[in-house]
Design a protein that fits this description.
The protein has about 140 residues and is mostly beta strands. The chain has one domain: Sandwich (Immunoglobulin-like), CATH 2.60.40. The chain is about 0% helix and about 50% strand.
């Protein structure tokens, strides 16, 4: 059951009454990459925002990886969710692990299809080293 709440600023928020909505997924290497990890997308601390957190291991130490959540699926592709600039690059540590967070200026979607991808580098954005479809968890 959904309830609409009108804030004093005239902004309407749809709240999931009694529900915890999250999008979760596994990040898996593609094209020979052994990268493995997780991604979670939840409502942000500020109303009308979405928080995304990604972490992975088994990557090349010292790599710098751009990443984004997209609308669609790993198989079909789609546009970046929110502003591409909201996703800080991931810096892989000496043990091959990396993690990062992004805050998107949009409310957490409660339906649709989404995926995360990890790019080779800022100069090789077309090459995807890992991808993972997100599933809605309630």
């Amino acid at each position: 059951m959904k309830t609409t709440v009108v804030l004093s600023l005239g902004v309407a928020l749809t709240l999931a009454a009694g529900r915890h909505v999250a999008w979760d997924g596994m990040v898996m290497g593609v094209g020979g990459s052994k990268l493995r990890g997780e991604v979670e997308m939840v409502a942000g601390k500020t109303p009308g925002t979405t928080a995304v957190e990604v972490s992975f291991a088994r990557d090349a130490a010292g790599a710098i990886r751009p990443w984004h959540v997209h609308v669609g699926s790993c198989a079909k592709g789609g546009p970046v969710l929110g502003a591409a600039s909201a996703y800080p690059v991931l810096r892989v540590d000496g043990k091959g692990a990396a993690g990062g967070k992004a805050t998107l200026r949009l409310a957490l979607p409660d339906s649709g299809s989404f995926y995360v991808n990890v790019h080779e580098s800022s100069s090789a954005m077309a090459k995807i080293v890992a991808c993972g479809d997100l599933l809605l968890e309630e």
